[in-house]
Structure formats: C-alpha cells, structure tokens
Amino acid sequence: MKAQVQIDLQSALAVHQAIAQDEALHGQLAELAGWCLDALRQGGKIFFAGNGGSFADAQHLAAEFVSRLQFDRAPLPSVALGTNSSSMSAIGNDYGYDQVFARELRAMAGPHDVFVPITTSGNSPNILAAVEVARELSIRTMGFTGEGGGRLGDFCPCLRVPSRRTERVQEGHILLGHILCGLVETAYFKG
Questions:
Q1: CA dist list (Å): 112 to 5, 11, 36, 41, 184
Q2: Strand bridging mode 158-160 / 143-145
Q3: Burial of 111 (C-beta count, 10 Å sphere; 0-12/13-18/19+)
Q4: Structure pTM?
C-alpha cells in the first residue's frame, strides 16, 4: 500500500506540473478571471454547475466567492446551480434530469453574469443543456474539463486539466478554481 501512495502522489504531482507549464491554460484562466471581475463590477454573478465531485467543487468555489478565500472582505455574488434540492427534484421530475441546471440558469442569470460548467468528461447532458441556455442568453461561459474536453469543448472554451483520470482532473479543477477566486478577490478589493 505504501508504494501505491507514492505512485498516486507522483501522478498528482505530474498533472500539477503540466498545469504549471501550460501557458495557454494560464492565459485562459486569466481571461476567465477578467470576465468574472467585469461581471461583478457590473452587478453580475458567477454561476457554477457540476455533477458528483464536480457538484461539490461547484459549491466549494461558489462559497469561496460568497465567503472569502485569502482575506476578510465583502461577499461576492456566486451560485452553485442545483443546490436547492426542491427545485432540482421538481425540475428533474417535471422536465428531466438533463434540465436541472439549464432551467435554474434561465431563471436566475442576467446579461452580466459568467457561467463556469465543471465536468471531468465534458459530456454531461445536463451541463451541455445549461451551456446551450448560457449561449442563448449571451452569458460568458468557460468550462472546466479534462484532457479530451468532450463535447463541452465544442460549445465553449475550456480549461482542460491534462489527465483522463477523474480524480486527477478534479484535483486540477479545484487548484484552478482557487487560483481563479484568488485572482478575482485580489483584483476586486485591492485593485
């Protein structure tokens, strides 16, 4: 077991090292941070959505904006779609599970908002449906996905963590999400 721990740690470090060296990804992340900053300065919100571990990441990142990350400050408006369980179960029952994020986004999003869909595969039907709504509403959208990008890459620009292993992709997503939150928080409050 100890040998497997070392193998897994080296695997995680290799993905983080690849992220650290990917200047195109750094540029995309900076662009997304700029979009979020513009949205917040115009009274907009930042929306996140995901399934399973990515759902937890969506909640985690929305909480970093609303609460705080690096220093005490005023809250920033951010929402993880699907966290209202009554709404999610009603939409899933009445319209189908593929509409749980799309319907909420349509109800709450405005023209100055940003949408960050999170999917390790890039193929989650409910994420793709929400991205379609974001496109209809002209909401800036940039996804977090894995190496292949899946179908999501056909619908919006994506930050692609260079791995096909779900756990490595999710670890990369939370790393990138924390960097995003830190960039926005610092620029918004410290100029």
A1: 45, 39, 9, 9, 16
A2: parallel
A3: exposed
A4: 0.97
